[in-house]
């Protein structure tokens, strides 16, 4: 019985493959062979290296392990054991040329003896098998159907049409199949559950740098590979990780390290490993079961069964439902507005007296078309002259100078705000979609220049972050709105919220490597990635109402942070990567800037006094008010 392995990375990777013939159950049957296919530098041209009769130490296996030309985001592997001698022409995977690109195909299973009659290739076939196997006849038939329909990629043919095609194959016998055009990898599980397939999404930091199978070791020891996200599918999962068993007849489409289409998104999946529950935090488990489907028409639907924020694009508009809402019948959607009461109290205590200090407060919420301030008061326990002003970022600010000695200072702000749901994201018109890269007029770029410069980091770190951002854009065919939405969702799924894990000095690259942080870290990371894509982005400080179905209630006990991106035909729009949603009626906007320091709620300078030790406490309460409560 043969083993299929398909791997999709979020960017070019160079894994090491070590054949373990001596420990392989297949080797005991007599003949043991292997084959690998990949696309160097993600070009349209593929390379297939195969050896139908291998030993662990043969020259070709050493080449497979050490070859530096791997660097690809897509890999297909076929491992074979048989009592019969295999010929080179019959070894898998198969490489075929069509539509200006190479196609790679691998299959395990057995078809009926009359498969040749069923797979009609025409009188003068364009694709003709060299060998005699049912697998090679099958790939020639698949390509013939694509050519007949004028489809030059798998996506052009359509995922549903491919499922129908695979069903026809299953009518003739057992078939697990891996088929790729270099852009997408489509994997089909046999309809009768022959030799079941399993899949796993691996998110950095990886628990181990090696994955051990009976016949194969996959090593991710390269400096860049350690930060690669990968989706892998195999008949024989041996690593101690939460592999998910594919359902009989299920079809998955992989691209850029993610499942981008799933033929059975709403079915319960069977977890093959009891270790699923041991994952640290629900985010990581969500990431294992997450799948986003993209149809050839461009509509995007989140099919993550663990999340309740469906992402939907219809025509030129995109909307994201916040946590706690569902699109199922009978489930109430988010209200079009909320009335929220926010109390923010900051207390400073010193062991010695402060004799002279100056402070700036940014605690008054924004008042505009989508958010109106009904009430606001700001009190501080120590009196001093004050002045209200608007800073360069448009934030309502108050400057206070204190000359009276004090050892304790309390600043209490209370606001009542009406927040309206913003409109869905829209493009320039329904006839065309906005794509990356965006072209800014010189005066636009001049106005947005503070929001286009990423944080200063070593060039190698910025390059790696840029590759990560570009991989998400490529996965969405550079569609602007879809890229931004998936960027927001990816940070939510793949990064763990861990209080106290970072400081104000933590960089976006630190967060990218550790895959953990708090709201300010996720906002900083999204801002950096957006700017690398040429999208103006700024830091937003405010509050969040977690009375909806938010997993993390602690967010409402302090100021909350998220990112705002300037999108053509939309203006500044808020994206909350901590919760994977667009900022809406649960978010109260207060201050913004290039970074946290521009928008910090309270800031101060002590000019005089032996203050000793400072103790800071912050208490934030966000509550929803009914119209009756507001009237009273």
- Mean pLDDT across all residues, rounded? 85
Number of helices: 13
Dominant shape: elongated
Query: Assembly type of the shown chains?
Result: single chain
The CATH architecture designation of the largest domain is: Roll
Residue share in helices? Answer: 10-25%
Give the total of beta strands: 37
Q: Domains counted in the coordinates: how many?
A: 2
Which structural class should the secondary elements be placed in? alpha+beta
What's the CATH topology name of the largest domain?
C8orf32 fold
Tell me what the structure shows:
The protein is α+β, with helices and mostly antiparallel strands and 632 residues long. It has two domains: 3-111 and 175-296, 4-Layer Sandwich (Glutamine Phosphoribosylpyrophosphate, subunit 1, domain 1), CATH 3.60.20; 327-632, C8orf32 fold (Roll), CATH 3.10.620.30. The chain is 19% helix and 35% strand. The strands form nine sheets. Strands 4-3-5-1-13-10-14-17 form an eight-stranded antiparallel beta sheet. Strands 6-7-8-9-15-16 form a six-stranded antiparallel beta sheet, with helices on one face. A five-stranded antiparallel beta sheet has the order 34-33-32-31-35. Helix 8 packs across helix 9, helix 8 crosses helix 11 (519-532) and helix 10 (508-514) packs across helix 11. The radius of gyration is 28 Å and the shape is elongated.
